[in-house]
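User: Show me a protein chain along with its predicted structure.
Assistant: Here is one chain, sequence first, then structure tokens.
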Amino acid sequence: MKMNPVPTRRFDMGLLSAIEDAGLNASAAPQQRWVDGWLLRFSPGKAKRARCINALAAGRRPVIDKLAACEAVYRGAGLPTIVRITPFSQPSGLDALLESIGMRRFDDTRVMVLEDLTAIGAPPLPEGTTLQPIGLDAFAQRVGALRGSPLSQRQAHAERLAQSPVPFNACELRVDGEVLACGQFALEGDLVGLYDIFTEPAARGRGLASLLCAGLLQQGRQLGARQAYLQVDGDNHPARAVYHRLGFADGYSYHYRTADPDAI
């Protein structure tokens, strides 16, 4: 399956590499190990970033042998083997090799970048609307409930946030006392990353996601961030339109491969 064309802006590759590192740090899972230059994460949560192979270095072993060793790890964890493919994946040609052995491509994801946070202002909230901080454990339960995630995935999310090597801050947007949207950001140096932006389906189309994201970005800026990033499904056009209006542009894309049809 081919990805949609990626309308990218020419960002500095050093910035994109730093964003890739920040994204890996923000999605760090307690359950992980290294296999010959590949970082294996096998958290039982919903996020594929926390339960996939990140091929960060070429290593010394033949790819097929290394992949077999990785499959044994995921089999032991009761999870499918999924490989995340980015512009930084190693060794060169890995994507084509995985395709040649029947691993299917899925979930085109865009990494969007905002180079200048000073362009973002926090618009005034309408009457009856509040943006309130929320603890990370409570946030994992909140966003999980909004998504309809099972308890096991909510608990895995909470565990990952509690043990994250970078700080997260979470907020919920209330309208007349009812929680209609929530989200969080991870802060690392000059970078702020938006994560888990979610709006109650019945409340979409009212500009709540824009208010939420602008508020989170403003908080990140106040804490020292100068640039922002986020990750979004390539076919999530409503969300991408919100982010484009905020000033984000596509930096690069990634996708996943697996031989397990149930994992797609």
